[in-house]
Automatic annotation (TrEMBL):
Keyword 4Fe-4S: yes
Organism of this sequence: Canavalia gladiata
Annotated protein name in UniProt: Endonuclease III homolog
Main location class: plastid
Pfam families per the UniProt record, alphabetical: HHH, HhH-GPD
Keyword terms, alphabetized: 4Fe-4S, DNA damage, DNA repair, Glycosidase, Hydrolase, Iron, Iron-sulfur, Lyase, Metal-binding, Transit peptide
Top-level taxon of origin: Eukaryota
Similarity comment text for this entry: Belongs to the Nth/MutY family.
Length: 377
């Protein structure tokens, strides 16, 4: 009996010693290898059999995120690489159909950063007209009466204005496709080169090689992808519409590279059929700065141009749906610019809740700090 007790005590001592050894090893691993892959350690728990103790160390999310950002900065794909890498392109970034809002919220939930709500300056029920909107619109019209913005002479609706109706519709569609992520004067130049080479019809583009189209439309944004889309669109228009373009919004949206903004513009200009507001980045930005739009059922600013279009159409009278685009686009090109808006030159700054919040000049305090740093001792 004493022998059995002695053996049992010895086994107990061995087991306790192994237990504390494993705990010590776990502590060392979790302290020194937090950012490494999951670790495994094997230690004897008894003299009879071995068991495997698995230690899973969580990755450091902040370190992982910084590493990904550095890697992305060092390997930014060029425009030519987008097609090869299978990345989303041009209008595909902005339009994902009915699942767009759900995907956006899901990405916010999955991210490491807590999303911050951006609240419109003057919250109001959805569908209710914002205060003084007519006075604001009239003030913008007066500032735009000089017609000195690029959109006034080189906008998509100006493409092929001397051509017959059928050819002009196709020219407007081509101009809309090329305009995405591209300045108006660059798009206008590409359209003129296509016109001079007799390549502004579906038949001509269909019979031209893609490399020639690339050279003529360069340097529009994503010109490689747009040349491919242009060839496909020309073939579809020939096969399905006898060289003309689709006459419905749904059919236009089925064309490669054509999103809601383009489709509404083509319907308005090409077919004189107003089904919605053409909202680009300028209209999207300015409507949010003015507090004219908010996400449905919330007080948040709209996130995409498509959300802005839906919010704007809930209260803006239909007779304003067509002129609002060139009016605000030109205003955004000359006064309410994306960076450093010229609020000091704006005639409606008193009615704008965002006026002078994105100042063009540094504050006096920052100027004094800079001047103090530049002074020689």
């Amino acid at each position: 009996m004493p022998l059995i007790i002695q053996l049992s005590n010895r086994m107990l001592v061995d087991w306790v010693g192994s237990y504390w050894f494993v705990l010590g090893r776990i502590k060392v691993l979790t302290m020194s290898e937090k950012t490494t892959t999951p670790c495994f350690y094997k230690a004897p728990l008894s003299n009879a059999s071995d068991s495997q103790v698995r230690v899973f160390a969580r990755r450091n999310k902040r370190a992982r995120k910084m590493a990904v950002e550095v890697e992305q900065k060092e390997h930014l794909p060029s425009t030519q690489d987008h097609k090869k890498l299978g990345l989303p392109d041009i209008e595909e970034f902005a339009y994902k159909g009915a699942n767009e809002l759900t995907q956006c919220r899901k990405s916010e939930m999955d991210s490491d950063v807590t999303p911050v709500e951006s609240i419109v300056a003057s919250p109001r029920p959805n569908g209710e007209s914002p205060a003084h909107w007519e006075k604001v619109l009239e003030g913008i019209r007066k500032m735009r009466c000089s017609a000195d913005a690029p959109v006034d002479t080189m906008g998509c609706e100006k493409a092929g204005d001397t051509l017959p109706p059928k050819e002009r519709r196709f020219a407007v569609l081509v101009s809309s496709l090329l305009s995405s992520q591209t300045k108006d004067h660059v798009t206008h130049g590409a359209i003129q080169r296509l016109l001079q080479n007799g390549l502004l019809t579906a038949d001509a583009i269909n019979n031209t090689d893609e490399e020639t189209i690339k050279k003529l439309i360069y340097p529009v944004g994503f010109y490689t992808r747009k040349a491919t889309n242009l060839k496909q669109i020309a073939n579809i228009c020939l096969m399905k519409y006898d060289g003309d373009i689709p006459s419905s919004l749904e059919q236009l949206l089925l064309l490669p590279g054509i999103g809601p903004k383009m489709a509404h513009l083509v319907m308005n200009v090409g077919w004189n059929n107003v089904q919605g507001i053409c909202v680009d980045t300028h209209v999207h930005r300015i409507c949010n700065r003015l507090g004219w739009v908010s996400r449905l059922g919330t007080k948040q600013k709209t996130v995409t141009p498509e959300e802005t279009r839906e919010a704007l159409q809930r209260w803006l009278p239909k007779e304003e749906w067509v002129p609002i685009n060139p009016l605000l686009v030109g205003f955004g090109q000359t006064i309410c610019t994306p960076l450093r808006p010229r609020c000091g030159e704006c005639a409606i700054s008193e009615l704008c809740p965002s006026a002078f919040k994105e100042t063009s000049n540094p504050s006096p305090s920052s100027k004094s700090r800079k001047s103090g740093l530049n002074k020689k001792p």
